[in-house]
Structures are given as structure tokens and as C-alpha cells.
Here is the input.
Amino acid sequence: MSILASRLSRIKPSPTIAVTNKARELKAAGRDVIGLGAGEPDFDTPDNIKEAAIAAIRRGETKYTDVDGIPELKAAVAAKFKRENGLSYGTDQIHVAPGGKTVIYNAFVATLSPGDEVIVPAPYWVSYPDMVLLAGGEPVTVVGHEADGFKLRPEALEAAITPRTKWLIINSPSNPTGAAYTGAELEALAAVLRRHPQVWVLTDDMYEHLIYGDFDYRTIAQVAPDLYDRTLTVNGVSKAYAMTGWRIGYGGGPKPLIDLMRKVAGQTTTNPSAISQWAAVEALNGPQDFIAERAKHFEARRDLVVSMLNQATGIRCATPEGAFYVYPSIEGLIGKKTRGGTTIDGDDTFATELLDAEGVAVVQGSAFGLSPYFRISYATSEDVLEEACRRIQRFCASLI
Here is the structure.
């Protein structure tokens, strides 16, 4: 008799974590490997945030806290939403958890019954469909094509909605494509949602501050205030503040939903790290000027990677509006062969052969629900990115 729970047979390990681990293993074995799989800023957590954590330790802030966040952090989150998004939430409408992923998972566990559907636009962050499955729901993938900027079209959303649809996920800017929705594009989706009052919106805004050029960032409850009462706005400190390991995510939403999510947290993770919470208070309330400065570095890296990839034989790379990813097409390489005789029949094979031949670790597009593409994270130095792109160019030129 298998020990495996049936629900686990429906999900797979995270492909992005698998690629990152594989790159680490190869490096440990002596291989010259450039890992471009991790979605993690290479900048350090700012010193004022570190000092706030140290001060909290010295004050003895090392005990259990309220299940879903200390009052000071909830107040800081509410102030952030008001200041940056024009959204008014009481502290009883704020949920803090060990990372944005946990916020999303708690929402799904709290609301999904067997057979409930969640619309997941593809390309999607690898964890969305599996979290829906773990919570007992059914992910419904709807493709946002490259010709549409990898974004969900209103008519595609309309066609996907059924009486069982419970949630729509919006991720802007997107992991893996970097695509971001304009206010007009969000309003077009909102017009569809108004016709279907049973559908809630989960907007994952984790990359909100990594926006380039003159793009005017908006979140859906800001654009469509009438959807406020059925929107969960999710964010966190991981990306903008370079605090991935601190594990603090947060969400703002209707109090009845937040109450349910707190109930889930009370029987699973309980509170996030007390020290991390105090660090997050300083992150949200403290100086913010470094965020724009770091975004300029990311924008320069984006431009470098897009330019070099578009010079590679058979690769086409769109210019994303935000985040720190690009999602290039390898359509022009399908059917070609490596010197060893392996046919590039898709992005899985491309990623495997690229790693073997040139020591560049990327994530295959199949992991994100749309092929033939691959994802590169450019959250590393320009020197490393230049070398990685040269290797990719060399690999593509070697195919016959």
C-alpha cells in the first residue's frame, strides 16, 4: 500500500527549484555553470532593514505573534496599499504569511471545494496550478499569446468562465514573461468580470516595483473599485526589498475572506517569523529611494539580454515591461540538431542540451504552460549575463 496521498499524485515538483538545484550540483562537481533559473534579486537586503531585525532580536521580539501578522506590520501594509495603490484596507483586512506563496495557498484552501475552477493565464508562475490542485480545485489554463504581449484577452477570459469558476489569477508584471497589464487592459478584463459576480480576483503584484520606462503601473482593484469586495491583492517584500529568504508576503482583501485565511494559517504555519516581521515593518515604512535605483540596473540588464538574445540564431525575444525575466521563443530552432545528433524537438530538449553543451541553466517553457519558449532570470550581474548570452549564441549557431 502506497504512503503517497492521492492529492500529491496530481502535482509535480517546482521546475524552477529543480533547475536551480541542478545548477548548484553541477557547480559543486566542478562544472562551469551559469544559473539563470532563480527568481531572486542579486542585491543584498538594505542595511536599515537588517538593523531593524537585529534591534528586534535585542528587544526580545522572539516569541509567537498574532497568527497572520503583528499589528505594526499590518498597519505598515495598509499604509503601503493606500500610499502606492490608492487602496484603503483596515488592519483586519490584511493577511501576513511566510511568503506570498503562502498567502495565495491560504486563500485557495479557504475557498476552493472539489470541482471549483481557477482560471490561470499562461504563461504562468509554476506554482499556481499545483496550489489550486492541492487545495482541491481545478486549474483552467488560458493562453496569453506572444502576439498579445503574453496577456489574457477579454474574449478568452469570457470563454473560459463557467458556473464553477471561483477565481481568476492576474500576475502583473508576470513571472515568467515580465508582461504587465495597462490600466486599460485591466479595465477590459474587469468589464468581463462584472458579468460574472461569482468570480473572485487574485492579483499577484509581487513585481510591482520592477517596472521599466514610462509604464504606468496599476492593480485591478485600483482600476475597477467596484471589484474591491471580491479582490485579494497579494504582494510581499521579497523582490522589491531583496528579502527572499526573510519569507514575508501579505495580502489585502475583504474581511470575510481574510478571516477564513487566518483560520487556515492558525492550523498550519501559524505566524511568520517574528524577526522577519519587524524587518518588514522597516522595509515598508523606511526609505524607498533605493527601489527605483535598483530598478534602473534591472532595466539595463533587460536591454542587454534582449539585444543579445535577438542576435542569436533562431531565437526571438520580446521586450518585457517589468520583473526580471525574459521569455524568448525557440521556434526558429525546432527541428535542428546538435553536433551529437540530438534533435531540438522542444524547449525541454533545448534547455537540457544548452546546459550540457555550454553550462547555461535556463527553465524550459513547458514548466510555465507555453512552448516553445524558455525563461531567463536576469537578476545577476551584466558580466555574467553577457557571458551567458554569448554561450547561448554559440550554442544556437552550432545547431545544424
Remarks:
- DSSP finds 13 helices and twelve strands in the chain.
- Residues 135 and 262 are 16 Å apart (CA to CA).
- The chain has a mean pLDDT of 96.
